[in-house]
Structure formats: C-alpha cells, structure tokens
Amino acid sequence: MAERQKTVDVLQNTQTIDRPQLASWMCLEDVMLTPVSDLISQGKQDVARAVKNNEMWTLPGTGFSVTAQMQRLFDSFEAHEPITVEEFRNQIAQWSDETVVDVVSFQLEYLSDRLVYPIQLAKDETGEVICPRYGNTKYTDIVQETERDGVVKQSAQQIEAFLKTAPSGTVAFFTSPPGWSGLTTDKETPITFPDTQTYLFRIKHDGTIESATVQTQMTIDENRQLLESFGERCSQNFQSLSSREQIKSITGKVVQFSADYGAGQNPFQEVVQRIHNIVGSDVASKTATFDSIFHDLHRINSLMETDQITHDALLALKNDLATLTEEVLRGQISIAALGERIGEAVLTIASYAQIEKQQRNNTNKRRYSEQTPDYSSKLVDPSFAFSHLEDTLVFLQTLPGCNGGGNTLNGLRNSTTVVLSAGGLRLGMIDSLDTENSSSNDLLECVRCPFCEEIVNAYKKNGRIHCPSCKESVECT
Fold it and tell me: pLDDT band for position 246 (50/70/90)?
C-alpha cells in the first residue's frame, strides 16, 4: 500500500521517471501501467494490422491518412525521452489539437468547393515565424526536404526571411504547379499534385501576417505566364526543359511587391486577377469560380470557422481522445484506438457533407419533391451519421478526382493522400491501378453527370454507369 501511494504521489508531482522504473513498479489506481515504448510498439502493430485488413477507420483510398496522424504521434514520443505520465497526456493533447486542425483543413479542401485555404502564421517573441495551430512549429519545418528536390523548402525559407524583415503593406508569393512532387508514399509510390497552389503572404499595417493558399487549375505554362507578368523571367530554354525542371524553376521564384500595386485592390486579389486573365475561364478549379476566390479573400480569417454540427463533432473528438488516453494509460486499450476514433470523426463529418450535398442536388433539380426524405433533422443525430459511415467511406473514395479527388473503387486508377506543404495540407494523387482486376475502361474520368451536373469520375458496374456524387446511374449503351 505504501509503495502504491508513493507511485501516486510521484504521478501527481509529475517527476521524471525513466523507463526501467516505469516498467517495474509504476501503477495508478491499482492498474499497472505499460511502458510507453511497449504502448507505442503495440500501437504500431495494431495500426499496421488494421491497414492490412482495410478496416474502415483507416479511411483506405481517401484523402485523409489516419496512419500518418498516428505516426506523427509515435514520432513525438520517440523524440522526447524519458517521459512522465503527465508529459504523455500533454503530448497527446497537443497532437489532438493539431489533428483537429488537419481535419478542418481536410474538410475545407476536400469536402467543400472552396479554393482559398488560410495559412495561419505568427511571430513568436524572438521574431521566428511559427504555425500556432501546429504547436508553434517553425513555418519552414512543416515543408519536407524532399518536396520538389528541396525547392519548396528554399522558397519557404525566402518567405520566412521576408516576413521577418519586410515593412507593413508589402506582399510576397510563390506558386507551385501541378505534376511531379518529389514525394512518395511509405511504399515508395510517387505522389503527383493534381492542381496549382499559389501561396500568398503579406504584412498588414498592424504588423501581423496574413497568408493564404489559392488553388487553381493553372497549367505549368500558365504558372510561367503569371511569374512573367510580375517581371520574373524564366530561362530562355524553358520550353525545352523537362516538366520536372520546369516545375522546379517556377516553384523556386518568390515574387515581392508593394501593396500599392494595383490601385484600390486587395493585394492578393491583384495576383488572382492575373491568374484569372491567364486561365481565361470563369471556373478556377473543382467546380468553383474565380468570383468565389475573390469573395473568400475578404474573409480569410473566418474560413477555418466550422458550422455548429462540425464544431460539435470536433469537440466530441477531442473529449473522447482525452478519455481514451486514460484508458491507454490503464492498459485497457491499445493506443491505436485513438486512430480509430479519428477515422470515425472524419467519416461522421463527411457524412454530414454527403447529406447536405445530396439535399442541395435534389433541391436544385427539384426531381424528387415528395420522394426525397428530409435530412435536416438527421444532421444533428450522430447515430444516423454513424449508421451511414460505410456508405460515406465509398462517398469519400469516389469524390471527383479531376482536381484533387480520387477513386479506388474496384481497384481503379488513383487514390489520394494529403501531405504537409508550404500552405499546410495539400492533396496528392497516388497511382494505384490494379491492372489484373480492372480496366481503365471501367472509369469515365471528368465527365458531367446528367442528374446532378457535377464533374465526376463515373464508373461502370453491372452494366450501368454510376455517379459517385448523387448515386444515380444509367444503363450502359
């Protein structure tokens, strides 16, 4: 009894306990605690087993990687030793906050038609440019060294230097075209970016930083034209370069200008207006227009705000992760259960988006009038969402892939992933064609559905062509 009380006292004082002590005698409320190294080892095995079995909570074939979220947690523990129980809780709490940011970013980029994504940056007391929602990580540290042979990181470092020293009212940007990324999956499968992301930064008159990513369907050559419109000249032999070298050449150029440039305009709008002129189409990307970009540029700070339903789902996720942490500490469950809860939360939020999308399509077409059920009351019923999670997984797997979605149904073409890049999360495409079990003729890429009128990757199955968005189908002819 005295030894147990000693253990509880140590826990309450959160003194550092090395692993041999933790393994041999630590307990809490009469339940033995497993060494952290064992928790992580078992967790990795459980996650790997779930991935191998394509368990629903791992979100196979979608743009959100639960395994990457879990690996980030495992890495954080392996990087900070020794560890107390209180540190264990605190690290999971910080990881939980960062995971919520990633879920919101995923919803914004993957589940919505928006094309403007906030990059939330600030300066710490030493003047370093940090990401407050990623545990105050340095901005340049979120960019991987291997992305586009290090060119993206080099441009991010130039942006960091600009943000540290530039006077108020100045603007900088760089642009990252579609195509080769230099990144691979854990299985060394290449990742390709399906769209252009242009990263915009400015020092406001109060000295704070405003920054955002704008996604468009600009081609590599249109990216070149954008840079040249601001006086950045590409090499004379640009057209003879490989696409890989063209991408590196474009991504490596950082443009700076005064906010007075383009009289009377928002400085970010000046960049987007030039993109609009170059592209020559009102559609910017996905099915969204340039007008929607101009609108969102006036409300960058509010774009990360969520509706009440999503807010409640994220709050429940954070609370549940805290509860599951205590169960992990007591040895009652595997730490992989945290990943399972994240996967469930993403599917629940996606199910709301799915229902709203179906409602919007039905309302717009007025095709179902009396036959269409009223889902509005169901949106606040978690049990309804949970009962539809399997269907929602298919919905995520078959979202339009023309500008960032993917399709792995029946082993077809591409799946998607998300990676950390200069603007936060960025969608990438992974080639996953199963040539033995499917044919490219089974997939109809980037076609307009006659029912919902969305651009989708339709697919053939059982003699019918199916729309993954509205679920309608027609007989093959």
Answer: very high
Report the distance separating Cα 340 and Cα 337, nearest Å: 5
Nearest to 132 by CA among 140, 120, 142, 144: 120
Calpha distance 135→91 (Å, rounded)? 10
Dihedral angle of Cα 240, 275, 114, 148, to the nearest 10 degrees: 30
Alpha-carbon dihedral 121, 135, 308, 115, rounded to 10 degrees: 40
Q: How far apart are CA 1 and CA 25, in angstroms?
A: 12
Higher pLDDT, 41 or 387: 41
DSSP label at residue 372: S
Could you give the CA distance from residue 131 to residue 160 in angstroms, rounded to a whole number?
Answer: 12
C-alpha to C-alpha distance for 156 and 64, rounded to whole angstroms = 24
Give the model confidence (pLDDT) of 9-59 as tens digits: 433 333 333 333 333 333 444 443 567 788 889 999 999 999 999 899 999
Query: How many residues are given for the chain?
Result: 477
**Three-state SS across 51-71?**
HHCCCHHHCCCCCCCHHHHHH
Query: Taking the CB of residue 193, how many other CB atoms lie within 10 A of it?
Result: 24
The SS3 assignment for 342 reads helix
For 384-403, give one letter per residue: b (16+ CB within 10 A) or e.
bbeebbeebbebbbbbbbbb
pLDDT digits (tens, 9 = 90+) for 415-444: 677 788 999 888 888 754 332 333 445 666
Cα 96 from Cα 318, distance rounded (Å): 6
